[in-house]
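User: For a benchmark we're assembling, each entry needs the component sequences followed by a predicted structure for the full assembly. Here are entry 17's components. Please fill in the structure.
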Amino acid sequence: MPTSGSKQRKAVALISGGLDSMLAARVIQDQGIHVEGINFYTGFCVEGHTHAIREKDKNKQKRNNALWVAEQLGIKLHIIDVIEEYKDVVINPVHGYGQNLNPCLDCKIFMVNKAQAWAWMEQNQFDFIITGEVVGQRPKSQRKETMPIIARESGADDRLLRPLSAQNLPPTLPEREGWVDRDALFGFHGRNRKPQIQLAEKLGFTEYSQPAGGCCFLTDKAYSNKLADLWQFRGKRAYELDDIMLLKVGRHLRPKPHYKLIISREEGENHFLSGYRKQFISLETRSHYGPVALIDGHPLEQDLKSAAAIVARYSQGRDAARVTVDIRMLDGNSHSLEITPMPADQILDAWHV
Amino acid sequence: MSSQTYHLDARRLLCPMPVIRTQDMISGLTEGDQVVVVCTDPGVLSDIPSWCRMHGHEVLSTTTRDREITITVLVRSTVR
Ligand code: SF4
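Assistant: Structure for entry 17:
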């Protein structure tokens, strides 16, 4: 146990919802430190969204993992909306991207910086920050060389403690001051998950989530491709929250450079896309059960016909001679087209984003 | 000052946005106030009660009609 004076030390833990940050927080709680969690919502976080939308996932557990973890730990969690500020991290990462459009190193710096801005605030008065980072765990952001970069560029410096890897790193202020006992911290490194799993067992955690790729959609290849497509065809690297939400939903087809179709795949997505009718031109089959589709871009008159034929193809009228498709324009006016569904072989693979 | 009831429209927002909006609204309220949040993401059925438990607030009622979920929260304390 720490031996320094009687002041109750306070740490803010970055809680992602995964196992490592859960362990890091518990290890520090067990040293008598008051811990509260912080979680940043960037819009890209892997959460129950697609489950919340898709009907087939209706019975899957819909919970926010970070909240669930905090409850298991018995700590408060503060969730902060950073959607706007985070755009610059995704669009202009100083340290570049990982395998896909994941700017992990810049993201870590950003989050630790935000956490410390929050933690040192007058009404909060925390002493240090903890994360579940492990040296060598991720090729880009969690290397021995990047750990000091995150500490320095975030401004947290030696008030940033990584309890799971502390013994591989120079002692931080909380260790030097004796707020925490360095010997009771860990020296985990590399991609082997066994030490974490053993520690979880020892601490009595039987349920936890271990996202395979990372904590957000940006590590997903298909998702990153859709985001890159959006930037390319809009001619600028920018996005709104609705854009990045819609990239998680439906099938995306780009028959022409100037427009893209987002076509729902099932009932839950129908409902979700219907909510965007005022922002996008929308199409829906009337004569047959079928998808709801949105058009992102600037379609010409003849494009609407092609779009309707494509949407008809994905309806139950795919083999019918004619399908009625309702088209709702941005001004709220609707009209219908009687259309022959586009034959499957005319829907080119290259259109699929 | 007497307690007041506040309304929050979190329809079409996906979790954790309804929780964030609830949290941000409550941070400016005082004990005894109530917040009525209307949402469409079923994730709130787990997330808002969870957030309330850890921050000491109380969920007074939860009703679901069609795809809309209404949760009423009693603000217990704003002391951190
Ligand atoms: S996976 Fe996503 S949230 Fe996690 S560090 Fe990388 S960019 Fe940030």
